[in-house]
Amino acid sequence: MISALPVGWRVERLLDLVSIRSGQVDPKLAQYRDLPLIAPDHIESGTGRLLDVRSAREQGAISGKFLVDPGDIIYSKIRPYLMKAYRAEFPALCSADMYPLKPRRGADGRYVLNVLLGREFTNYAVGESMRSGIPKINREGLAGYELPVPADSEQATVGAALGDADALIQSIEQAIAKKRALKQGMMQELLTGRTRLSGFDGEWEDVSAGDTGVFKGGSGFPTRFQGLRGQRYPFFKVSDMNNLGNETYMRSSNNSVSELMRSQLGATAFPAGSIVFAKVGAAVFLERKRILAEPSCIDNNMAAFTANATWVDSLFMYYVLQNVLLGSLVAVGALPALRS
Q1: Burial degree of 142 (CB within 10 A; 0-12, 13-18, 19+)
Q2: Do 269 and 297 meet the contact criterion of CB atoms below 8 Å apart?
Q3: Over the stretch 289-322, which tens digit does the pLDDT of each residue have?
Q4: What does pTM read for this prediction?
């Protein structure tokens, strides 16, 4: 329900601001085959950014597509929780899995784009798709969405401000990507001994990973033990790697267990400094490695490496493992899994 609005604002239905373009064109025809063809997979989730630009001909398109003009908004109707929308900057085609939305007179396309990428609309769209039992929002659902709308000039100002924020975020991300590439190069040099830090000139020794520590899998974690906070040991699952603050050190867990529960589960309490990673399923190929910030348990979709402190520094081994593609070590089968 929309609360009290500022003076000059009004409540509108989404389709009062945009119209859904109708009529498909044949992407094999000469006037269309070299236009960019945009599908849901070409749009980054939640950002409104286009990830890939290829023509209809390059993609081998044969079925009907919608024609899109600059300024139109393309919204993915399937799996609305992915939040995929893009404001076209050039003439293009879009797939039938997307709604081509043309802003009506007085509606600012950038404002509408940010509405479609927002949490309020996404929650609505997901709810509509759940009611229909199909992971998509239909036209009736789209038509039923109401939103607060400011005057035309304020729409444009809000849209421009959010666009500036997106541009700033993108420039920061590009700077971070450059720093990461620089760090990757440093790792290649420093972790192989090709470049030595000042004050070190001794010989390196070739050893296997098993000589420097112990690899061990996690434990089963039945549902009845889950959901507790504030117990003795954090109990990490693969999904906890996504928690804010867990980018390097695992500090935030959605579950924890007492010493008694740990004993009943037969779970290992891995010491702080152990390096954890996914060992089963597609998550292996994400190549994420994290360091335990405190003694913790992990579930059986994860494994841990605990360094032998008399042989090697655990932080050094963390960076060594960052340079190892675990996905290349998986056993072939229906469910990818790391070999022991």
Answers
A1: buried
A2: yes
A3: 999 999 999 999 999 999 988 888 889 889 888 8
A4: 0.59
- Domain membership of residue 176 (yes or no) is no
Pairwise CA distance, residues 335 & 50, whole Å: 32
Cβ atoms of 221 and 235 within 8 Å: the answer is yes
φ and ψ at residue 21, rounded to 5 degrees: -65, 145
CATH number where 319 lies: 3.90.220.20
Q: Is residue 332 located within the same domain as residue 273?
A: yes
124/216 same-domain check: no
258 assigned to some structural domain: yes
- Whether the CB-CB separation of 97 and 76 falls below 8 Å is answered with yes
SS3 label, residue 176 = helix
Which residues lie closer than 8 Å to 154 by C-beta, 6 or more apart? Answer: 8
Rounded CA separation 337/58 (Å): 35
Antiparallel, parallel or unpaired: β 275-278 and 289-292: antiparallel
CA distance 303 to 299: 8
Assess whether 158 and 244 both reside in one domain: no
Assess whether pLDDT exceeds 80 at residue 248.
Answer: yes
For 14, the enclosing helix (H) or strand (E) is: helix 14-17
Q: Flag whether 2 is in a domain.
A: no
158-198 residue pLDDT tens: 878 888 888 888 888 888 888 878 877 887 787 777 888 88
What residues make up the domain containing 321? Answer: 209-338
Residues 250-280: tens digit of each pLDDT: 999 999 999 999 999 999 999 999 999 999 8
Residue percentage of the chain with pLDDT more than 90: 55
Check residue 334 and give its pLDDT: 47
Quick check: is 192 in a domain? no
* pLDDT over threshold 70, residue 340: no
Q: Number of folded domains in the chain?
A: 2
